[in-house]
């Protein structure tokens, strides 16, 4: 492997899935500002919107997780184009 291309600050980080509140621990060099306590130990926490614990491909369930309203925002933008397209026909 090439020297000097890998991060130095690997540590145990808690990754938290915000859609179902599941937490898992993994070694990472990700920058975090918050911490979480798990089993009496304090870990830096990285919050994710979706993970393998909530993704439909892995769970087999088709649930819509929209924490930021992005689907509604897309639909409101697309509706203008859809209406214009139907008027031209």
From TrEMBL:
What species is this protein from? Rikenella microfusus
Gene3D superfamilies per the record? Answer: Ribosomal protein L31 (4.10.830.30)
Q: Which family does it belong to?
A: Belongs to the bacterial ribosomal protein bL31 family. Type B subfamily.
The name of this protein is 50S ribosomal protein L31
Database matches in NCBIfam families: L31, PRK01678.1
Look up keyword Ribonucleoprotein and say if it applies.
yes
Name the coiled-coil region(s): none
Among InterPro entries, the record links this protein to: Ribosomal_bL28/bL31-like_sf (IPR034704), Ribosomal_bL31 (IPR002150), Ribosomal_bL31_B (IPR027493), Ribosomal_bL31_sf (IPR042105)
Q: How does it assemble?
A: Part of the 50S ribosomal subunit.
Q: Which GO terms describe its cellular component?
A: ribonucleoprotein complex; ribosome
User: Record's PANTHER family?
Assistant: 50S RIBOSOMAL PROTEIN L31, CHLOROPLASTIC, LARGE RIBOSOMAL SUBUNIT PROTEIN BL31C
Biological process according to GO: translation
GO molecular function terms listed in the Swiss-Prot or TrEMBL record: structural constituent of ribosome
Q: Which gene encodes it?
A: rpmE2
Cross-referenced SUPFAM superfamilies? L28p-like (SSF143800)
Q: Looking at the keywords, is Cytoplasm present?
A: no
Q: Name one Pfam family in it.
A: Ribosomal_L31
UniProt keywords (A-Z) are:
Ribonucleoprotein, Ribosomal protein
